[in-house]
Amino acid sequence: MGLGPGAQTRRRAARLLAETLKQRKTLDQVFSGSEELAGLERRDAGFVRAMVIGAFRELGRYDAALAGLVERPLETLDPLVLSFLRIGAVQLWRLDAPVHAAVGETVAAAKADPASARAGGLVNAVLRRASEAREAFEDAPIEAVWPDWLWARMTADLGAEKAGALARAQLDLPELHLTALDPAATAEALGGTCLPGGSLVLPMGRVDEVEGYGEGTWWVQDAAAALPARLLNARPGEHVLDLCAAPGGKTLQLAAAGAHVTALDRSAGRLKRLHENLARTGLGERVDVVCADARTFAPAEKFDAILVDAPCSALGTLARHPEGAWIKRPGDLEGFLPLQGEILRHALGLLKPGGRLVYCVCTPLRAEGADVVHAVLEAGLARREPIMSSEIAGFEPCLTEAGDLLTLPAAGRRHDAFYIARLTPAG
User: What is the pLDDT of residues 60-74, one digit of tens each?
Assistant: First the structure.
């Protein structure tokens, strides 16, 4: 007799969780075209996603609590067996699934999988203990949300208080933020709320089912991610370069402001998304799309303004992509640092005299943000153009003493963590 739907969803969730950790891919990459999700009804697929994303949202806290319920170190368990334990814990401690379903269906799924069948008794025993041990999870420290190396890195850069606030922000489901061509009309039509800076907030749901998606009157964009293009202050008729542009949210903003935009990215695959967004919004006539390396791009003419959204660790987006903390290794971050500096230095040389540049990264780490900007300032390649509080409605507390932005989420502010600086070329 085959597995019932309940056990099937748990088996698929455990396998997706284990696959993501093994292959160190993003959940978007793993979910896209996944055989584990293929053929599932929408409700079942949603439940699978909820279990996997929920596990990553507090992976270290689940492990800290489970460690006290297993008689051997967790790292000695087969990865799939550990995934079944984590999936069961998510159901018991966060999704409030009935105990008989969370335990029984997860155990049935583990026993049915050849890779974990022999550990079915262990999964059963541990999850039954877990059903009465919710306090162990609730008492797990907030720093366990991330691997030890990441907590150490965050606290070194931000301090324990701000790092803790960033970690706590990861526990909440993210909001759906939009940028709209007509914010007031879109907010009224969709029942959304306008934030002070102009972004919209909607309840999280299926994006392609929200009114206006096909017509291109809005696009998904985190409220903090919308700031760099606004701070560039592109004007109608200006020639603006958007470096590392895909999937195109900032390009759309610049084109909507009336600028003629060159949108550059070295990934042809990612540029497909940009082309789709341009077609959907009808802004393609104002945009030239270029597939090239941002470090060597040699245009015929220089630009009035440049936006550099540099490749980075993306550790400021963990509330939306919590797996990022667990699929990265400490050495991965170092690979971005020379690339960021090279792109910024080259971009400064592509500006017209008196031009302006905004540099941003979706990470709060100093090495990827403030240190990169400090290096070009120290080298005499640029001057800082301080961001003013009057330009960042709703984000005033995020202004640094130097005049840059570090958009750490806080009470009443649920958004990504971006570092943003505005520069002008020296001389």
Answer: 999 999 999 999 999
Residues marked active site are found at: 362
Contact yes or no for 415/177 (Cβ under 8 A): yes
Whose tokens are 């393609």? That residue is: 284
Architecture of domain 223-425: 3-Layer(aba) Sandwich (3.40)
Question: What residues have CB less than 8 Å from 14, skipping those under 6 apart?
Answer: 80, 83, 84, 86, 87, 106, 109, 110, 113, 116
d(CA 202, CA 12): 30
Q: What are phi and psi of 233, to 5 degrees?
A: 55, 55
**Residue 14 CB neighbours (<10 A):** 32
Does residue 212 have a pLDDT over 80?
no
Given the DSSP bridges, would you call strands 303-309 and 239-243 parallel, antiparallel or unpaired? parallel
Fold of 5-140: N-utilizing Substance Protein B Homolog; Chain A (1.10.940)
Q: For the segment 231-271, what is each residue's pLDDT rounded down to a tens digit? A: 999 999 999 999 999 999 999 999 999 999 999 999 999 99
Domain boundaries, the chain: 5-140, 175-220, 223-425
**Is residue 346 within 8 Å of residue 297, measured between CB atoms?**
yes
